[in-house]
Target: OmpA family protein
Amino acid sequence: MNKKYYLLLLLIFSAFVLSAQSGKQKKADRLFNDFAYTKAIEAYKDLLERDYNTSYNTLKIAESYYMLRDPENAVIYYRDAVEQPDVSPEAYYQYAQMLRGVRDYDLSREWLKKYQEEGKNPKQASELLSEDEIATFEGFESFKLQPASFNSVYSDFGTFENQGVIYFTSARGEADTKTKIYDWTGEPFLDIYETTYEGGEVKPVEGKVNSPRHEGPVTLSEDGNTMYFTRNNYLDNRNGKKDDEGVNHLKIYKAEKSGGEWGNITELPFSSDSYSVGHPSLSNDGKTLYFASEAPGGLGGSDIYKVSVENGIFGTPENLGSTVNSPGNEVFPFIDQKGDLYFSSDGHKGYGLLDIFVVTAEAPQKLQNLGEAVNSSMDDFAFFRNSGDNSRGFISSNRTGGQGNDDIYEMSILAPLVLKGQVTDSINGKPIASATLRLLGEDGQQIAFLETDTLGNFQTPITRNKNFPLETKHIKYINKSESISTSNMDDRTELIHNIELSPVRDVEYLAEINKIYFDFDKSNIRPDAANELDKLVDLMTNEYPELVIEIGSHTDKRGSVEYNRKLAERRAQSTFDYLVQNGIAEDRIVTFKGYGEEQPEIDCKDCNEEQHQLNRRSIFKVVKME
Model:
């Protein structure tokens, strides 16, 4: 073939290939812009395999996974995309968020800092970069999460219970509407279903709430006859107006129950064609409705608002301010019977993507994270707590190990566990007042410091399913160290742990007596010595009736050794006689011995009178206590 014809054909073929690739690029972008992210990913990957527009398509795949809340796949593509010279700083923020989703917090902070330096909204990263510790809510002493029995292989989330009926949102596609596939997720559109706690039938709610568009989540009035629910802009079997970018936004609708079915659907007046309003939660008295909205003038992408409800008339929505709202997104509010507000946020510092937070009625200016186990590295949202039974609740999450994309988890909220007990004397069983107890964590740090009351009792809240070192002390007793376990106590509210302390083997210490002193060259019991011996009598009679002792008596160094030995024996005899005369059995004093000057208290050559006095004494030793 003529060379120039060959080159011409090659150029024509190349142009054809480029034209085909360009067409595929337009299709992929169209899918992305139409929110068909699952299909868009496949189209972009096909272009990547052909090495076409590599940098751009890598970023678009990353963004698609970001929109699908799939951090494991997103970080793979963001890793390359953020290194491109012309990438938007928004990619830094999105990459940082996805890194939180895979628990790579250190690398996430690096990209948040870069976004803070170059992004359009640096405040969006400020709180996530805060060095402050995450304030963790202690309102749930402990709890257990388990997947709800009514989950499906599709998305299930957003529970609400009323009069024993559980309402939730699901993409299982079983409602009495024409099943359509939502291109964003590749699953059917969302509808509202109902069931009961104990494995009841799952069925779509009756009436006109479910439509060909998305519905859910819901909230109900206390009497169960009024429902507020989220739905795409759709009413009277017609799609509502889209915004300038062709988006059909979410709105809140009201439904009324009649004859077991939901009807009389009306749109709430503060909904809009221009931005989304959804996720309603009604206060216990029915007078305040909380919701999430992207209304202009907020603090971030989506904020939490409240609005008054009076005889079906709605007031002016009020933004809840910076304690609740951040430059990020706040969604899924829930107000419980105490007035505590739970919601999810990706703008406040937490453990993953969306975390669940609470602002309590008691501390309205304090934001608290519900902590790990409730919050994972993924999206955790749609908190609900049963107003009639505070031991039950639900959250929703797309954490790993679930059955579908989003799953519902039932939360068994356990009553606080209280450690309580009595500290007693191991010999006589009597309570020990003012004993101190130190409860330690597994890291050895002190958790609680307690002191027993006059009856030797103590108590303190304690966390379940852990081991705790415990130290008990009293000045008259031998210290005791042990470990207690709170494992397997879900059905208990009290852990009774009684403690016995062994008394120190020191009579003078136990009876709080001073030394029994004698005058120079005398063996009679002085009045001050009698007072101290009376304390010993009381100890041996009333506290330790089995106590057996020995007596040892001593002299100073004046006089001969033999004289002092005999003087000490007379002092020991006097001490023995006083105890026996005051009711102590002779066999409880096994020996009384005089040691003379052999064992001085003060060993001195030229002793002064005070030192001589300290050496003229009787002392006691414990032989047996039991």
About this structure: The CA atoms of residues 109 and 129 lie 6 Å apart.
